[in-house]
Fold this sequence. Notes:
TIM Barrel; 5-stranded antiparallel beta sheet; 11 helices; globular
Amino acid sequence: MNYKTKLLRTLVLFCVLAFSKLMAQNYIPSKENLDARVSFQEAKFGMFVHWGVYSILGDGEWVMNNQNIAIDEYEKLPSFFNPIDFDPKEWVALVKEAGMNYITITSRHHDGFSMFDSKVTDYDIVDATPYGKDVLKALAEECRKQGVKLFFYYSLLDWNRDDYFPRGRTGKGIPGRGEGEWEEYITFMKAQLKELLTNYGEIGGIWFDGHWDQKEWDGKKFGELKVDWHYDEIYKMIHDLQPQALIGNNHHIGVIDGEDFQMFEKDLPGKNTTGWGTAADQIGLVPLEVCETINGTWGFNLQDRKHKSNKELIHYLIKAAGYGSNMLLNVGPMPNGKIQPEHQSSLRAMGKWLKENGNTIYGTQKGPIEPTDDFVSTQKGKTIYLHVLNPDLNLIHIDRVPVKIKSVRVLKTQKNIPFRNDKFGMVVDVSALSKDPIDTVIQIELK
Ligand code: GLC
């Protein structure tokens, strides 16, 4: 074989290998999965629940790390975790009252404690607490009864297990951590995920978190990933067990092959005001979800009184929808299983607003105008909903809408509003309107 032929053969072989690798990696979502994505995107509003044995300490879900609580001390918590007032019926009823369509609950957080009956550890709610019952099971049953989708949050990072080794950059000051085999940890996670996908009926999906623990952070940017999370195998297993189950991963980077939705933590899509969030150029072509807390913490925090106002929360939901995104709003139930009254009342207020205005949010897509603090647009077919968030606005200037406009009206009263739409842009004159302090919706009908 001469040199040229050899080179050509190597090149062809290389291309075939590269192509087959690409094909092998390229996840093609099933029909069930694509349908689930559509209904997820239409659902628009869900409840995030951070609940675990940490709630006893009333200092958020990172308390083990933040107070450097030794493993053997922290492990005493389950022995007095007894949420006798937990009533899944009440939770799901509240979800409905709030106008929410799904729940995402922590099945296991960074402290490594499983809130479900797991056969691969005793460090779980059934084996280690006086309560002794699987709260996820009760919740899954109630969700099914009331037609609410249930997703499981699952922490990739673990401050308790020896085999979570190499350790990540968090939890370094926790006394009593051992050393073990990474591959055993992966096997453990797979076994737990299999339990979550087989023992709770059809679920909405899995919400991963903690990826970033295995990257150094210098206060400005993340370093290289230090471990192999085996996402290819894990994601495949999930999709094989339940094709409709949606996978999302709060890794703060672009969508990885096999993921079905993308989340943005404490930020509107691409805004990255936190500094460690997902950048605008990493927004993928999958359904989006922003998650936010009502006060400042995810897990129950006794002294966190920085509850956002109803107006702030409603505006966040509207803005998220203006980006085509869902909003997953968090509650951190108390150790007795109740949701704190302040948060219940915020949720009810949102539900009240949605009862009147829900058709401008649910089932919509992002509108033609980039959201601002003053106004946001959502769209359903030939209807654009222009949400006026700033009641002091008189004229709304936006880019010219490149389609003919049939009418511009106040949604509530159907009163016509003066407007202009020409090569200089579109101007809607809202000066004569008496505006709602939260949101005045203007309905623009396209021809
Ligand atoms: C962060 C935190 C975690 C919380 C999550 C929710 O990743 O580590 O405590 O569960 O955000 O978005």
